Amino acid sequence: MKPSKEEIRKKLTPLQYDVTQEDGTERAFDNEYWNNKREGIYVDIVSGEPLFISTDKYKSGTGWPSFARSLEKDNIVEKEDKSIFATRIEVRSRYGDSHLGHVFPDGPEPTGLRYCLNSASLRFVPKEDMEKEGYGKYLKRFEK
């Protein structure tokens, strides 16, 4: 269950709250994970649900973390977003209902997708901490 607004506000920084709860956007190239190259997974900052994995992260040049696919497709909800001059597809987490960012059809193969996300909506779990934090089932995704 999603925590109350008050609980979320206490847990998050003002930027994290603005991005996840009020559909804000952080600054490009001035966010925690845009250039993170460590192995691990990215989970929803509110709910902890697994969303993306570093093996699908790539350098898009946009200044935000970008991924070619989601780790758990069922944890991502897509919604039409007409808040600016063009229609975009917003991505939200299913259980936390956090605004994550947007998905665009200009990514690399094999998916052709670019999930362009706000670092403020994510928490990075390093590979070495995944087992103890309950995400051990994803460790096999790092095997070559």
Q: Can you offer a commentary on this structure?
A:
It is a single chain. With 144 residues, the protein is of the alpha+beta class. Helices cover 11% and strands 28% of the residues. The chain has helices spanning 5-11, 14-22, and strands spanning 40-44, 50-53, 57-58, 66-67, 76-81, 88-93, 99-104, 114-117, 122-126. The strands form 2 sheets. It has a 6-stranded antiparallel β-sheet. The model has no long low-confidence stretch (mean pLDDT 95).
- Trace the largest sheet across and list its strands: 3-4-8-7-6-5
Percent of residues in helices comes to 10-25%
Helix and strand content put the structural class at alpha+beta
The N- and C-terminal alpha carbons lie at a distance of 36 Å
Number of helices: 2
Helix/strand order: HHEEEEEEEEE
Radius of gyration: 14 Å
Summarize the topology:
Elements: H1 5-11, H2 14-22, E1 40-44, E2 50-53, E3 57-58, E4 66-67, E5 76-81, E6 88-93, E7 99-104, E8 114-117, E9 122-126
